[in-house]
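Researcher: Let's run the pair from yesterday's discussion. Sequence first, then C-alpha cells, for each.
Model: Starting with the first of the pair.
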Amino acid sequence: MTNVFMQAAADDIAIVSAKEKQISGLRDELNPEVNKVMAIANLAVVAKGLGLDAEKFAGRKKVAGQFRDMITEAGVKEAKAKLLAENAIKMARHEAFAETVAVAADSNDAGAFAQSVQGAFADMEITTQSRLVKLLNPKVEVSAVDKFAISALKEVGATKSDINVRKTAICTGTVADDDAIQLLLDAAARIDPRVKEVAATLVDALNNGGFEVEVQDAA
C-alpha cells in the first residue's frame, strides 16, 4: 500500500514540475512586466496632465481622488490603484523621467513617449515593476542610534503611531520616553557597570530640572 501512494505522490510531483515549467515558459514568452512598467509610465503622464506632480494646489485632494478612480475604472482594485497612482506621481516628479513625462503631457504622443521611456528603462536596466518601484521609492537609511531609540520606545509599549521622529529628537511626549531612556541606560550598564551610578538617578534628575543638557545639531 505504501508503495502505491509513494508512486502516486511521485507522479504528482512530476506533473507539478512539468506544469510549472510550462507556466514559466509562458510567462517568459508573454512578459507582462513590460506592460506593468509601461502602465506606471503612462499613468505618470496622466498625473502630470492633472498637475499632480505639484506638491500642493487648491483642490489637489479631489483631483488625486479622481485620478485613483480613473485607475480603478480601468479594472484595478482600489488598494492597487492607490499604489499605482502614488508611483505614477513619483515617476512624474523623478529627475530621470520628469522631462520626458512633461513633453508627453504636452504633445499627447503616446507612441513617441513609449519609445523614449522604454529606452530610458533599458539604459537603467529597469526590466520589472519591482525595479521601477524600488527606484521611485529609495530606502531611507536610519542610523544605528535612531534604530536603538525607536526599538527602546517600542519595547516599553509605544506604537509606531506614537513615535514622533524629528531631527532633534525621537520621542512620544509621554512617560514611555522616560521608560525608554531608563531601558537604554540599563542596557549601557550591562556593557559598563559604572553606568549604574548614573542610570539610577538620571531620568529623575532630567525631569526635576537638576540636570541640564545642551543639544547641538550635527554639523
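Model: Moving on to the second of the pair.
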Amino acid sequence: MNIYFYHEGTDTSLPEMMVASARQTNPHLPVVQISDSKTPKVSGVSVHLKFDVSVRGVMFRRALCYSYALRTLGGLGIFVDTDMLFLKEIDFNRMLLISEGVIILCRRSYDNDSVFNHNHYPGFEEYAEKTLGACFPFLGSFIATGSQLALNRIVEKMAALSEEKQKWYGDQIALADLENDHDILVVEVPESRYGYVPQLCENFDVSKLDTDIKLVHFKGARKQLMRSSYEYLLKQGLNCPNES
C-alpha cells in the first residue's frame, strides 16, 4: 500500500509536513508524490511520479494523475490532501481493498446542513438552496482504493462536467455519483476521524484531540494552524499525544 499526494508549485512547506507525519506514523508505507515536471521533489518521499496533464481544472488534473499513478505502481493506494497531518497508523482491511471496484470514501461530518453558496461559482445553479451534505456528501481529501476501475470512473464522470466544475467541486460531484454506479462498492469512513477539521481559533491545541482521530485537515484558513501543530507533534515523536 502506498500513500499518494498531488502537489503543484514550488512551495513544498505543506506537503513536507504531511509527508513527515505519514512516515512517522506509517513507516511501512511508501509515500508517493504526484506532480507535473516543473514541481520539485518534496523531502521525504519514496517515489516522485511526474505527469504533465493538459487540462485546466486542477481537480480534474488531480483525478487524472491519481488514475495514472495507480496504473503505474499498482497495488493499494491512500490518496490525501497536502494540508493534512497523520496522527495514527492507517490499517484498512487489505482483503477488502483488493476487490475490484471497491473504494473507501470519506463522508462529510461537518456543515452538512449549511446551504451551498452557488453564487460564488458560475454554472452551479442546480445546487441553489441545497445543503452541502446533499450536494457533496463525500470529500476528495481522503480516498483509499486498489481499484483502477473506481479511479477511472471518477475520471470519466469528471470529464463530462463543465470546465468550471472540473476546477471546483468536480471531484466531489463524481464521488457522490459513485454511489449510483453498480460496478462500484463504496465503503464509508467519517471525516471526523479521517480528516478532522479543527476550529479556527488561536488557541487550537492538537494535544487535546480524541485518540481515535487518524488525520487532521487544516483546510482553508486553518492552514495557519498546521505549522504549530506539526512542531508540537514532532516534539512528541508524532505519536498521538493522548496515548501512552
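Researcher: Give me one sentence on the second I can quote.
Model: Confidence is low (pLDDT under 50) at residues 239-244.
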